[in-house]
Amino acid sequence: MVKAVIGLGSNLGDSKRxxxxxxxxxxxxxxxxxxxxSSLYLTxxxxxxxxxxxxxxxxxxxxxxxxxxLLDVLHQVENSHHRRRIRHWGERxxxxxxxxxxxxxxxxxxxxxxxxxxxxxxxxxxxLLEIDSSYAMPDGRYLRDxxxxxxxxxxxxxxxxxxxCAKKPDTLKLKLKNAGKNCSFSASGSxxxxxxxxxxxxxxxxxxxxxxxxxxxxxxxxxxxxxxKV
Length: 230
Ligand code: ADP
Ligand code: MG
Hints:
Number of strands: 10
CATH topology: Alpha-Beta Plaits
Bound molecules: adenosine-5'-diphosphate, magnesium ion
Shape: globular
Helix content: 25-40%
């Protein structure tokens, strides 16, 4: 069994539902057990800016598959969500990437692991730190030490979709345990880093942030997931 980390993203259709169903579908494969999922995050798109914000999350799995077989499975699940490749880094119903595969370093034509873009992507680093604040690259570099190098604007505009933000936005406490003083979550679900602390993002989609029903389901599923295959 290898512990691997999958990045999930969507900005077409019912994105939260795409992510939720993708996790469930992955968990149904014999060779995969999803052991943890991060919160859902609303994030600024990389690449073309004339597209919706993304919903992103990461999932930690135990897998008996090889990395290439796992990639095939991810493509199957993407296809079942009618994923179409429209343009590079463009809109998609579902994007599933292998971020880490144990401590393996893979550099083949169709698969690079760790995913080469990890160091540039707040929407990968922050959710993974939420699950494990001591996560490190195979070469030993801690993910938490990469926060200061992340694009400031991406961090500023990122929103963690909180379980009950629609009910009590001011009282919710979302703390990133031990992730280092450079990064924290505010009560409203915004993420701040370093000198950005306290500055609220401006263009995140409030409607999405407060549409908490699927988010609630996601959190419930996360609780159920811990320790068993469901
Ligand atoms: P992106 O995720 O960069 O937007 P795609 O999802 O369209 O791009 O993937 C394009 C190709 O990237 C895939 O067909 C796959 O062969 C390749 N690829 C290379 N490394 C990885 C990885 N770590 N995880 C997922 N796909 C990868
Ligand atoms: Mg991809």
